[in-house]
Amino acid sequence: MRLLVTGSTGKVGQNFLPAFLASDTFRTWSVVALCNNRVIDENDRVRVVKGSINDPETVRDALTGVTHVLHMAAVKESPDLAIDVSVKGMFLLLEHFRQLEGAKQFILVGGDCSVGHMFQPYQGPVTEQSARKAYPGCYALTKVLEEVMLEQYQHQYDLNGCVLRAPWIMEKDDFKYALSFGPDQFGGPPWPELVSGEALRTYAGADHVPLLLDRDGKPLRRNFVHVSDLVSAILAALDNPAARQQLFNISMNEPVDYGKAARHLAETRSYRIAEIPTDFHSNWLVNAKARQTLDWEPSTDLEALVEGAWNYRRDAKDPRKIWYPG
User: Fold this and answer.
1) Residue among 325, 212, 321 at smallest CA distance from 260
2) Is the pLDDT of residue 224 over 90?
3) What is the DSSP letter of 6?
């Protein structure tokens, strides 16, 4: 078996490849890594094809002899690249893969931006049957289009596809700095849009932790997943007949409750709590289908997420970085 991986140099890819290569289940498999801006090291089981995913010849080369695809490559809010990479690239992969004699499975790692994560309202838990509702911006739109494109290839050509829909992916000390009020904040939200300059200076100058409130005035609940749990879900879905033409939410068993997170940090590390009203919606990306169908279980809960982030010591040679484009 031969697995094509896109996005191998990203956060998930850098965690997936070592786990995959070390897995006894896949010990006879080889890997083709389609890389563009950055590359990984080759070895006797890993071949690198360098080029753009929107180039037909590059995609054909990368798919030579491939039986399975794990598609993770993406660009964020880059309107000039969004269609070429996320739409044309996805189309080229699907169109060439479906014609391969040995094609067996196409896995797409999607995101909960296809259901609007905290920007769109839902009356109940967000399941795999919930309506797709992207939030403003080209990135969320492309995540919807990717899911729909794979879905239609399943209808058109009976392609064996699988979507693993993940929320915000955490590793190392990411979560700690996602809650920072300082310039070292990782990700978002953009504090100047939510609090005054004076308040932000106060919060940034002392040990404050944000307790985001949703538009109903309750502690915000937002979905996260640890990268190790997403990797284990990919391994569980790969070459699994139960994953055939299925969409799975891959998330923590419960969304992160900002009230519980803030109180935990106040009790264990003497943080002061800063309540911040927002217009965000609390949503719950339910993972029951993946747990039941794939026999998968996330290992990271709220306490493990917090403690893991606060106890992690990042090496100076390992800067926290978001790559745009991927």
Assistant:
1) 212
2) yes
3) E
- Running DSSP on this structure, what letter comes out for residue 218? S
CA 105 to CA 152: how far, in whole Å?
A: 15
Q: Are residues 65 and 197 in the same domain?
A: no
DSSP-based three-state secondary structure for 167: coil
Q: Is residue 48 part of a domain?
A: yes
pLDDT at 240 over 60: yes
* Cα-trace Rg, the chain: 20
pLDDT of residue 164: 98
Residues 6+ apart with CB under 8 A from 85: 52, 53, 54, 73, 74, 75, 325
Amino acid at 131: A
DSSP letters spanning 242-268:
GGTTEEEE---SS-EEHHHHHHHHHHH
What pLDDT score was predicted for residue 325?
39
Q: Rounded CA gap, 41 and 216, in Å?
A: 50
Sign of the dihedral defined by the CA atoms of residues 222, 292, 304, 174, in that order: negative
pLDDT of residue 82: 81
Taking only the tens place, the pLDDT of each residue in 285-323 is 999 999 999 999 999 999 999 999 999 998 888 877 665
Neighbouring CB atoms inside 10 A of 262's CB total 22
Closest by Cα among 240, 223, 234 to 11: 234
pTM of the model: 0.96
Query: Is residue 326 predicted with pLDDT exceeding 60?
Result: no
Structural domain boundaries, residue 193: 172-222+254-281+300-311
Q: What is the mean pLDDT of residues 94-122?
A: 96
Nearest to 146 by CA among 202, 99, 106: 106
Q: Torsion angle of alpha carbons 84, 155, 289, 291, nearest 10°? A: -70
Confidence of residue 324 (pLDDT cuts 50, 70, 90): very low
Domain count for the chain, please give it.
2
Mean pLDDT of 199-216: 94
The closest of 138, 160, 113, 146 to 6, measured between CA atoms, is: 146
Does any domain span residue 288? no
